[in-house]
Design a protein that fits this description.
The protein is α/β, with parallel strands linked by helices and 161 residues long. The chain is built from 5 helices and 7 strands, in the order βαβαββαβββαα. Strand 6 and strand 7 (133-140) form a beta hairpin. Bound molecules: adenosine-5'-triphosphate and magnesium ion.
């Protein structure tokens, strides 16, 4: 696990941008953290770094939103309102991952049993001050585990993988 502390939304977005630089089509990121932790803010930084020019907002009325980046798409899902686990299959996740895209899922912890066991977990927790956050990045499965050294180098966080 790599832990990075941020003190502003912009810093969280900068961390997300560094992760985006390591992203490959077919990657999945699960964004975990309480309401207002910064999961959408993270996605904004991530998308911008991939060349998304459209504003990235919370997919409130739709579960999924698609954005065009320069070299790959970004699918942004928020499963907070998902009522039943079997609705996950309606999201068509395998197709989204196979769409020259990276997929980011807010509240993804709720649907872990339905997901491929190959993703980067990004857990955002609140710190002391209003704007303090800690981002804990944990590679699960081979795709991101293969990039552990790069993650460690580029995020410059504390703690061994
Ligand atoms: N260090 C920080 N990192 C991220 N966001 C921060 C930070 N400091 C302050 N913020 C603010 O916290 C808020 C985070 O909101 P955001 O919508 O990204 O949270 P969220 O985790 O997506 O919430 P929800 O669960 O409702 O979807 C934003 O208003 C952002 O500006
Ligand atoms: Mg959100």
């Amino acid at each position: 696990m790599i832990r990075v502390e941020t003190a502003t939304a912009a810093e969280t977005q900068a961390v997300a941008a560094k992760l985006a630089a390591l992203a490959q089509p077919g990657d999945l990121l699960l964004l975990l953290g309480d309401l207002g932790a910064g999961k959408t803010a993270f996605t904004q930084g991530f998308g911008r770094a991939l060349g998304v020019t459209q504003p990235i907002t919370s997919p409130t009325f739709t579960l999924a939103q698609q954005y065009e980046g320069t070299s790959m798409r970004v699918h942004h899902l928020d499963v907070y309102r998902l009522e039943q686990l079997d609705e996950v299959s309606d999201l068509g996740l395998p197709e989204l991952l196979d769409d020259n895209a990276v997929v980011l899922i807010e509240w993804g912890d709720a649907i872990v049993p339905m997901l491929p066991a190959d993703y980067l977990e990004v857990r955002i927790t609140f710190g002391e001050g209003d704007d303090d956050r800690a981002l804990e990045c944990t590679p699960i499965g081979p795709r991101w585990s293969a990039r552990k050294a790069a993650l460690q180098r580029d995020l410059g966080g504390s703690g061994p993988c």
